[in-house]
TrEMBL record:
InterPro entries: Flavodoxin_fold (IPR003680), Flavoprotein-like_sf (IPR029039), NAD(P)H_dehydrogenase_qn (IPR051545). GO terms for cellular component: cytosol. Residues 1-214 form the Flavodoxin-like fold domain. Pfam families: Flavodoxin_2 (PF02525). The keyword Oxidoreductase applies. Belongs to the NAD(P)H dehydrogenase (quinone) family. Keywords: Oxidoreductase. It comes from the Bacteria. This is NADPH:quinone reductase. Transmembrane segments: none annotated. GO terms for molecular function: NAD(P)H dehydrogenase (quinone) activity.
Length: 271
């Protein structure tokens, strides 16, 4: 594999930092290539601005259109182009972060905002049909992605009846609305719970789970998100009435397997 590891934690000596180091070690030992984007170490700028697109600040900034023009002209800021080059190079992307206020840290959100621009990660059309390529199709189709997320909460509290909400639903905007949207196949996430209370045995167990997931990553079964252009959605991008009839919520966007209706149960344990 050619793995891009995107890491967003301000402390390299944290549990997350130690797991990142162990994951990279395992990948190298197994003969894989790894490039990293350590966002805090890079002092990544998360703020979108006119300078990203060589845009005259005197003119009104329409971000999508400006990004698309700059991408087509090779005029995006150098730091953005460098991250896009890493994505083009990689066949697998690991996104690792602590869960802060039910979401990723702002620096990581800003990485997606600035790197996944129109014309590169979205806003791409099939030249033969004019069809917009997204949700399972697009520039990043063929690549795999896995989220590694640490949380202070106990694992059960991030389950279907936990007070913190079900992890897969908390990660839906990232896994479905960003990674799958841009065409990547997304394998189930790895949760490292109770991270702020982890002792040496807990770290060893988490490291072993991470190593197992990384070694199985090339053949892991992706989350079965429905393809936008696969026939399940109508022209308004709403599920057809006969698909998941009578059901609502995020789980309806999981495709049925072998003719069996997809359940609403959590999918973090899918191998």
């Amino acid at each position: 594999m050619k793995v891009l590891w995107v890491f967003a934690h301000p402390e390299p000596r944290s549990l997350g930092g130690a797991l990142r180091d162990e994951g990279v070690r395992v990948l190298h030992a197994d003969g894989h290539e790894v490039r990293q984007s350590d966002l805090y170490a890079m002092r990544w700028d998360p703020v979108v601005g006119a300078a990203d697109f060589d845009h005259d600040p005197a003119d009104r900034l329409l971000v999508g259109a400006a990004a698309q023009r700059a991408h087509a002209a090779g005029a995006l800021r150098a730091d953005i182009r460098s991250e896009q080059d890493k994505l083009v190079w990689a066949d697998t992307v690991v996104v690792q972060f602590p869960l802060w206020w039910y979401a990723m840290p702002a620096i990581l959100k800003g990485w997606f905002d600035r790197v996944f621009v129109q014309g590169f990660a979205f806003g791409v059309r099939d030249p033969a049909t004019g069809r917009t390529l997204r949700y399972g199709e697009g520039t990043l189709t063929g690549k795999r992605a896995m989220v590694v997320v640490s949380a202070g909460a106990r694992e059960v509290s991030l389950g279907p009846r936990g007070v913190n909400g079900q992890l897969d639903e908390l990660l839906f905007p990232l896994q479905h609305g960003t990674l799958w949207y841009s065409g990547m196949s997304v394998v189930p996430p790895l949760l490292v719970p109770s991270a702020d209370r982890a002792d040496t045995p807990a770290f060893a167990a988490a490291a072993a789970r991470l190593a197992e997931r990384l070694r199985g990553l090339p053949v892991a079964r992706p989350i079965p998100f429905r393809r936008q252009n696969g026939g399940d959605y109508d022209e308004d991008l709403v599920l057809r009435p006969d698909i998941a009839a009578g059901r609502h919520g995020l789980s309806v966007h999981l495709a049925a397997a072998a003719g069996v209706q997809a359940p609403s149960a959590p999918i973090t344990s899918v191998p």
